[in-house]
Amino acid sequence: MNIFAERRKQLLERLPGVLVLPAAPELIRNNSVHHEYRQDSDFHYLTGFGEPDAVLLLAPKHPEHKMVLFVRKRDPEREKYDGARAGVEGAKAEYGADAAFTIDELDDKLIDYLQGNHRLYYKLGSNRALDERVLRARELLRLKGTRTKKTWPTEIVEPGDVLHEMRAVKSEVELGFMRRAAAITREAHLGAMRLAAPGRYEYEVEAHIREVFRRNGAERTAYTPIVGAGPNATILHYHANRKKLEGGELLLIDAGCEYEYYASDVTRTFPVNGTFSPVQRRLYEIVLAAQMAAIEAVKPGVTVDALHDITVRTLVEGFVREGLLSGDVNEIIEKETYKRLYPHRTSHWLGMDVHDVGHYYREGEARPLEPGMVFTIEPGIYVAPDDEKAPAEYRGIGIRIEDDILVTATGYENLTADIPKAPDEVERACRDA
Predict the structure, then answer these.
(1) Rounded distance, CA 389 to CA 428, Å?
(2) DSSP state, 295?
(3) Going by C-beta distance under 8 Å and a sequence separation of 6 or more, which residues neighbour residue 290?
(4) Shortest CA distance to 414 belongs to which of 402, 422, 426?
(5) Which of 148, 147, 142, 96 is nearest to 117 (CA)?
(6) pLDDT tens string 354-394
(7) H or E segment and range at residue 378
(8) What's the half-sphere exposure (Cβ side, CA atoms, 13 Å) at 110?
(9) What radius of gyration do the chain's Cα atoms show?
(10) pTM higher than the cut 0.90
(11) Environment class of residue 230 by beta-carbon count within 10 Å: exposed (0-12), middle (13-18) or buried (19+)?
(12) Residue of 314, 268, 316, 252 lying closest to 289 (CA atoms)
């Protein structure tokens, strides 16, 4: 709780107004069955509170109530089914709220806490029901304020402009969670390399990955695992995971766990039968060379755009050598004809969300990397099975290699470096079975 309190303190110092932040809602999967609940990342980041139907209010100008929680009331009958609730008293005693109320008191209390603030930090459009309650409270306060000396919010600002900038740079505590997530993910990928063999199914490999995650204390996957064999590896977000593995194919696995709300995101590609064919190895080494070139360039001040450019150039040079593309490398890059084989960007932020928050650009310019930022580097090649522009021996091959990179004061730390990716290391890991 001290960690959450310190984050709130830092945010309060940066807020020239009141912040209203809802918890994630419960969502129905089908009929009366809910999806697995996961708290909103921003809400967890500031409170550690894991229940739905809650609202956090931060009021820097209030003399006593800097942190206010609106929560579900205690209900012994419902708690028999869903588990214990913190309630109003628990919100104060366990989660550090200066004041707490039941969620049905929100409408009245909002007026009290909004007055005296010209700026309201609130994300419009994500929760329409709450939008109406917040805007109604603001309008009632405005009507009252026009006839009195009381002020009301005249600006509504996206809270991410402040909050997400805090989340973009990770603390040592956060990095500890991310290193643990990386270690669990390593065990899962190594197990998958040992398990995969001709005759097994993609879903068997996926099941092993999920079991390793849960057995090691990860609450959930950070995203739906991709386990794509053969031509399925050329589908960027393939999720069916039901094909039988065949000898001679590559298996692409994009899977990472979530530990204490922090994600890992790792992709490895390896031969189902344990040995790369000459063609597979050549393409694999092109992708690996591109990834290593980008990783080695990471340091404070560099931008993800610059890393993408390094990646693209290395890939295109390799594609031309292999006859997958023809023409001048610079012209191919300028016209972006390489996107037939490599259509996506090289990096994204990583943290509480697998595609984490934070600006990539400021005032139209690419944002320089800073120590404490974590992001992925994930080049690939995807030769569609029906790509008649590619030599026949390359069709249906998909390869991606992805690691989680921390920016340090002098360079970088690869959080997932222990997961084999050099071709000989990959083959040894497969043979460990």
Answers:
(1) 34
(2) H
(3) 310, 311, 312, 314, 315, 318, 379
(4) 402
(5) 142
(6) 999 999 999 999 999 999 999 999 999 999 999 999 999 99
(7) none
(8) 27
(9) 25
(10) yes
(11) buried
(12) 314
